[in-house]
Write the structure tokens for this entry.
Amino acid sequence: MKKKVLLIIPAYNEEKNILKTWETILDYNQKNKTNYEVIVINDGSTDKTEDILVEHEIPHVRLLTNLGIGGAVQTGYKYAYQHHYDVAIQYDGDGQHDVRYIEKLLNELENEKADMVIGSRFIDKKESAFQSSAARRIGIQCISWVIKQKTGKKVFDTTSGFRAVNQKLIQEFSKMYPTEYPEPISTVYALNKKYKIKEVPVSMNERRGGKSSIHTWKKVYYMINVLLTILLMKKGDKYDA
Amino acid sequence: MMLNLRLFLIGLSIILVLILLRLIAKNKLPVKYSLFWLIASLVVFLVGVFPNFIGLFTKLIGFETASSLVVCVIVGLLLLITLLLTIIVSEQKRKLLLLVQEVSLLKEKIEK
């Protein structure tokens, strides 16, 4: 039986990108006979994002107010859980992620019996043209090292927002998902609960427009918060960054 | 401790308690949150009434004067109250998040 796959696309003021992202997925579905379904989570956008979503009949949930990336993504997991999807994939609305790699994530999920598959920029350096800045890479490596010490598992691309999870983790995440710094924190959470995580090399593009959720002056603050949260997390702990 | 300071502390604590009782009576402040303030007022009141008591502590902790200990205690109390408020705010933030998510999902279901 074919698996029901849902792409969770959080969107905050993505009027420039969201339509292109949607069309790319539709196009891919048509050409490859795949049936990736989409739910856009409009995280209280103040621009024309909502108008575009309504006009083009893109399936979406409009959050009444801005919840931040973690709260938005969790809404997607709740939606996936309520509608009994087999696989949920976090996917960026700003063109960073490449729809062609989804199959790779799905295969890994299936073949390796993994609970979560992360699309990673750093496993295979040749695979990804876009590697992000040196400062950010050092930060990501730092988080990676701490996660390794804490859980014994090496995760290379700790901040990648391109990941697929199975039904078990959909349920976990719909109940509990960090509101802040969700990628590294939820990874540690899953590892602490003995879920199996795999990484596959993917290529990412530089974002087409819009801003990264991590601004320049907030980087140090981000690092301190993430590292401290990971260090303080205990096995089977409830957490809220 | 000077008599002036003692009277000031006693007066301060009494005014504070009166304000608190009024707020509780008007249903503007739940007893749960006022309890901490009431205890804080009691501490200030006791310091005013029994200065010898605090004099003992002043020497014990190593303060020069009783008045600086009083200031220190008040600052400590304020810090505790702020911490309490931070906890309450975080709790409410979490509840609000849940509420917004559930309502938004419901709206999506209805409007479809």
About this structure: Chain B is about 90% helix and 0% strand.
